[in-house]
Fold these 2 entries.
Entry 1:
Amino acid sequence: MSGLIAFWNILKKDIRNYYLKPPNISWGIIFPLSWTLMQIIRSPGDLDIMELLPGLMGMSVLFGTTSMLAVTITFERKGRSFERLLLAPIGLNTLVLAKISGAVMFGIFNAFVPLVLASFLTDLSGINWTLVILGVFLVAVSSTLLGLMVAVSVQEVFEAQTLSNFFRFPMLFLCGLFVPIERLPAILKPLSFCLPLTYGTDILRASILGSSLMNRYLSIFMMFVFIGILFYLSRRNINRKWIL
């Protein structure tokens, strides 16, 4: 019970102090909207909104979660508040889950902004909503853990953002967000399958378009594998850099 109370209070504090700030909420809306408008302007008359949706949703989640974790963790580390949490009588797993839960919720919110906008432009009745929700959740968790792994490895916000971009921007082109993996050069295709967002995007494509590169169950399984690996690496970095 004490662990659950601690989890809730840490999550509530993060939501109040970081995620409910007007700039963050507006950023979650403006970022996917600007990318949608860019695609519409770039391809007038030839644009298939449904083809764009998986990429827009995956990108919104990726940038939203990693950016927020880079800010919250590094700010709290500089202010010594994270160290005070480490001294609290709660398990490290509970602490990590509480810190990432807010970012996961923020990422899920970001993912559904393009869907809401698309509902005014096209018919969404053919979407598999159960698979969409599962895919968005898995992408949000894996992207959040990627952001956490980066954030606990650096000292400053600008360092976290710079290191995050080292992963994020290649993912835009390697994970099938806008360029199908089958069109990539042969030398880059193996790298695509080493990135969690590749499998998350494939789940979203299966749920929205009804077609995917891989079996959806394989993609779901691989997402859980990446989530487990990223969680382990994040915990190891916290232990190695902040505790020992």
Entry 2:
Amino acid sequence: MTRPEEKKRPTHLGFLTALGDPARGVIGGFLILNLVGRPTEFHCTAPVRPNRAQEILYGATLEGFLCGEQIAQALVGRTKTELAAILTNNPNILTAGSSLKAPLAMVFRRSDVCAEPSDEEKYAVWEEKTGRNADLGAAPSTNRRIDDENWAPEERCKDETNFRRRSFFYDAFERTPPTPGVDYSAWRPVAKGRNRLALPTDFVGPDGRAVGVDEISARLDLFFKSIDSVEPFERIRLAIEEAQKSG
């Protein structure tokens, strides 16, 4: 039975990301799911490209400006749905911070993304990395040997395209590269099932009511009974690809 306090909690969760880079254009995507993981809204932007003056003037803060101030605020501003929280896998979106209408949290790579790949996958990367072809006419199963020094798991995890076709995720909060304008001490790393997140220590909503990290965590628990915090970002990526094809 649902507790009385749970009935008052928002019943929709937002997933917000930005794909690409300033040179080619950054595309934002925003997916809203209900408690059982069904989509209720989806919004995306056209590619956002800075002009030369912005590149010069914003310097290292450019991506945070594009993702956080332009894309994030524009996408979230389109919905009137009350959100329990907004999750992102892009640290540049964290620059939006408290300007959004719901607590913003960071999602990290699930623990099994860096699981041991197959021999075929290992061999393909080794061959590409070393520029060598070890077949030499022998049966592939008997001649595909890989030196450990040529196969570093940390290198595999740096490349979003190796073995997993999905949106990019960092491994852990402490390994996330610094984003200018983001105070990382304002987020607390937490474990949620198989996945890891960083939640804001506090959030002040548009109504002026403060929401603490424990309340944010409790809100998310309602959704994670049926929603994986990583999977929806793949939906966004695929939807953006389809939108680009049709556009």
